[in-house]
Amino acid sequence: MNKKAKYIFVTGGVSSSLGKGIISASLAKLLQGRGFSVTIQKLDPYINVDPGTLNPYEHGECYVTEDGAETDLDLGHYERFSSTPTSQANNVTTGRIYLNVITKERKGEYLGTTVQVIPHITDEIKRSVQILGETGNYDFVITEIGGTVGDIESFPFVETVRQMKWELGHDCAVVHLTLVPFLKAAGELKTKPTQHSVKTMLEQGVQPDIIVCRTERVLSDGIKTKIAQFCNVTEESVIESIDAESIYDVPILMKEEKLDIVVLNKTRTKIPNEIDLANWEQFLKRLKNPKYEVDIALVGKYVELKDAYKSINEAFVHGGSANECKVNIKLIHSEQVTKATAKKLLKDMDGILVAPGFGGRGIEGKIEAIRFARENRIPFLGICLGMQCAAIEFSRNVLGHKDAHTTEIEPNTTYPVIDLMEGQKDIEEMGGTMRLGAYECKMDKNSKAFKAYQNDLVSERHRHRFEFNNAYREEFEKSGMRLAGINPKEDLVEIIELIDHPWFVGVQFHPEYKSTVRFPHPLFVDFIKAAIDYKQEK
Ligand code: GLN
After folding, report:
1. Which of 67, 156, 427, 533 has the fewest CB atoms found within 10 Å of its own CB?
2. Helical pair 192-203 and 221-231, crossing angle rounded to 10 deg
3. What DSSP letter does each residue of 431-490 carry, written as one string?
4. Per-position DSSP letters for 129-174, written without gaps between them
5. Atom of ligand 1 nearest to the CA of 408
6. 496 bridge partner residues
7. Which spans in 44-137 are helix H?
8. Ligand 1 pocket: which residues have CB below 6 Å?
9. pLDDT at residue 53, rounded to an integer
10. Phi-psi region of 325 (alpha: psi -120 to 50; beta: other; left: phi over 0)
11. How much is the pLDDT for 30?
12. For position 307, what pLDDT does the model report?
């Protein structure tokens, strides 16, 4: 293809959590709608080499790419908005940059020079950004810089932006996202934090080209003029980003504010007349005018964390829209589900999803929730640990192996229905040592999964260490659990399904990572459909 890429940086000021990821993804969507090819990258200022070893309390869900990179959850937004797969190259942390530089230093690649933040660290950052542009696949590389300008940690990233802006001229632009707060006592919106934030950028040598102002209220022309004057940008370059009902409204709001046009002008790019967002608009229309409504229990141990199950929540939004159905997700803490409470907590649900996870906390509650779904014929989807729990529940309560367990939690169980694969047994490092990324799955043509996918060979993403124990395959199949999907290369069980149940599917992989606005995941679409049917028959 050999395209010459232009580089857009998205930085943030004043406060974290302003939605840089959504703004980046929305800009990508708009540019895509105008026919450009775009990739989005996230630079994270922390020292962890990747977020794989972080628990969800730190940064929410860990998102897994096709090539098995454990990445920041913003990459999930990038894929959900743009339907373009990301990879390891799309998420780079300070830790990764330093690891690369130190590895090169140990190999003697710096030929005896003193290795320093400038130029060696900044060169490595630059290389990590340009590597995407140099593929020749993209018209635009959008790079979101994590954290807030002025943080000690983001300094080398901002310095890299300064250098690239200087080197690339009009082929590079900086979008700076700030907060314009409304002070109730004063009865007005305040621009001072934005001015200070831009000054901080200027101290580091970067003049933002476009300022996106996150706000609860409409920005008057006067406010826009003031921000333009004090921050050295044109008035068209001050973009209002008002709180939206849903993140999926943001591309449309950004289109109205002409964010894409301003970016194209800044980068001296010829502006195509047409913008095609037909699919997106169709999706929003269905999302906002549902004909049905279902309640789905999401049973997991991180219910107090908004972002722990991000991709699952979003997959329900996509699958809900496809079914013209409003999906109400009821978060249920797995530690609260017991034989005594299961009925009270779950009886009104139209579907039950048991979440992925690591470690023993709350696992008995997950198993009880699955028993309730199985016995009461409520549609059930188990993901990763959720699938493993379904295998444990079946072993204990249908096959009668009372101490069946996964060896992750009970290494001495007499019925290790979930166990490590031979090759995994002597791994000691925690980072990047799981079964990660895309693997194929071959479907049984009689299965519900096949019916949902309409395809007998699919590829899905993984993130786990433990597997269904092949020693028990026969016993499962004889007793009514279909092994509906198998990884052909390694002969691993990927999908289990109860034959005598309206919809009971456990998957070892993570379907949620692949669900996008454009391509809602077939298993989520079918699960929601089963929940609608269940509710109507109730
Ligand atoms: N803890 C389980 C394993 O490592 C499941 C992982 C998950 O749910 N992502 O196999």
Report:
1. 427
2. 20
3. TT-SEEEEEEEEEPTTSHHHHHHT-SEEEEEEEESEEE-GGGHHHHHHTTEEEEEEETTT
4. HHHHHTTS--SEEEEEEPS-TT-GGGHHHHHHHHHHHHHHGGGEEE
5. 1
6. 483, 506
7. 56-59, 74-82, 94-106, 122-133
8. 356-358, 384-385, 388, 408, 463-466
9. 76
10. beta
11. 98
12. 85
Q: What is the CA radius of gyration of the chain?
A: 25
Distance spanning both ends of the chain, measured CA to CA: 55
pLDDT of residue 424: 62
- Tens of pLDDT, residue by residue over 337-374, are 999 999 999 999 999 999 999 988 999 999 999 999 99
Instruction: Examine residue 356 and say whether the peptide bond preceding it is cis (omega within 30 degrees of 0).
Output: no
Is 510 noted as a catalytic residue in this protein? yes
Residue range 176-185: mean pLDDT, rounded:
96
What are residue 497's DSSP bridge partners? 482, 505
237: how many CB neighbours lie within 10 A of its CB?
25
Q: Both tokens of residue 486?
A: 């198998």
**Residues 524 and 296 sit within 8 Å (Cβ to Cβ):** no
How far, in Å, from the CA of 179 to the mean position of ligand 1?
38
Amino acid at 301: K
Tokens found for residue 361: 């906390």
Catalytic residue among 77, 441, 512, 521: 512
Structure token pair of residue 514: 């692949």
| CB-CB neighbours of 195 under 10 Å | 16
Give me the phi and psi of 453, to 5 degrees please. -75, -30
Rounded to two decimals, the pTM is 0.93
